[in-house]
Amino acid sequence: MYDVLVLVEEELSRPDAERLVDLYAGTPEPVRFHLIVPSEDAHAQVEASLAGIAGSDPFGMTGPRYAMRPDDDVHRAADEAQRAADAHATAALERGVGRLRAAGREADGHITRRHPVDELVDSIQRIHGREVVVLTRPHVIAELLHVDWSAQARRHLGVPVLHLLEQHPEDAPV
What we know:
This protein is α/β, with parallel strands linked by helices. 46% of the residues lie in helices and 19% in strands. Strands 3-2-1-4-5 form a five-stranded parallel beta sheet, sandwiched between helices. It is globular, with a radius of gyration of 19 Å.
């Protein structure tokens, strides 16, 4: 089995699933795709926002009087946001895996709250993956500075890494 990890920034569209299947159509051994869908880390986003506010302190609100407790509404809201993000990522994962299977390929996957490249490193070792495909929107500055996911993956993995730009149904060639 030729195992290919596929990291997507957004839901795997039908055109992208078809493009993946076409890319590996000539592979001499059967291909299995392992889809990884990041879930937004709501806790980290909330903490980063609070840290940004606290760091600038334009209204003098960083004193003990305004200190957050673990049971504050902010943390409950972050928990709810995380559950919603996980549900959204899980639904996107199921649709993406379904599209690959509908195209006649073996596919599975999982969502992750971790940094996507860290997840790739662990996943490639766990499944003995042979190749990685990273599907993202264009990130010109990150790509120019080589800090995008595909550049990071190339530095950390000992397998080929292919970076493709996501193609949404409205962008599909006619």
